[in-house]
Amino acid sequence: MHRKSDEAVAIQRRYYMDTASRYDTMHAREGDDDSWNLTLVSALLRAIGAQSLLDVGAGTGRGVCYLQSALPELQACGVEPVAALIDQAVARAKNQRAVFVQASGTALPFHDGSFDAVCSFAMLHHVPNPGVVVGEMLRVARKAVLILDSNRFGQGPWPVRIAKLGLYKAGLWKIVNYAKTRGKGYLFTEGDGIAYSYSAYDSFDQIAEWADRLMVMPADPGTARSWLHPLLTTGGVLVCALKDVDT
Question: How many domains does the chain have?
Answer without folding.
Answer: 1
